[in-house]
Amino acid sequence: LGGRSFSIWSADTGEQVFDSGEDIERIVYNNAADDANNATTLLKADQLLGRLDNKGPEPESVVVGQVGNDTYAFVGLERASGILMYKITNPQKPSFVQYIRNTTTLADGDISPEGMKFIPASQSPSGVPLLVVGHEVTGSVAVYQIK
Description:
Helix 1 runs antiparallel to helix 2 (45-55). By secondary structure, this protein is of the alpha+beta class. It has one domain (7-145). A hairpin with a 4-residue loop joins strand 4 and strand 5 (82-87). The chain has helices at residues 23-36, 45-55; strands at residues 7-9, 16-19, 59-67, 70-77, 82-87, 95-100, 113-119, 130-135, 141-145. It contains two helices and nine strands.
């Protein structure tokens, strides 16, 4: 049926310590509803859900990075064209931080994140951690400062 969640596994025991379950679809739906309330958007929540019915949000890629003393996971959602940011400092109890999305219509902006790279502050030209995202449909690259 396609991807609808992400999991965290223990490197020591090989056991699953977390699964996001329906969190991804709930977050995507809530954000689509916000977009649908914007008169300038073409995207309606039911259109997005119709697209997600087939294969889900399709978590396509995951990168992990350190920001200060905390560890974060960035989950790219191909069909929902967004990126979820979770604080995973405690892998058994991750917390959702932010939904990053640079499109509201699926007709403009950056569509369908495919590959991601986290650049730590120590290697960043700005001294701030960066998330670099390649988008399959639009062929675009987005760079986000992570603060």
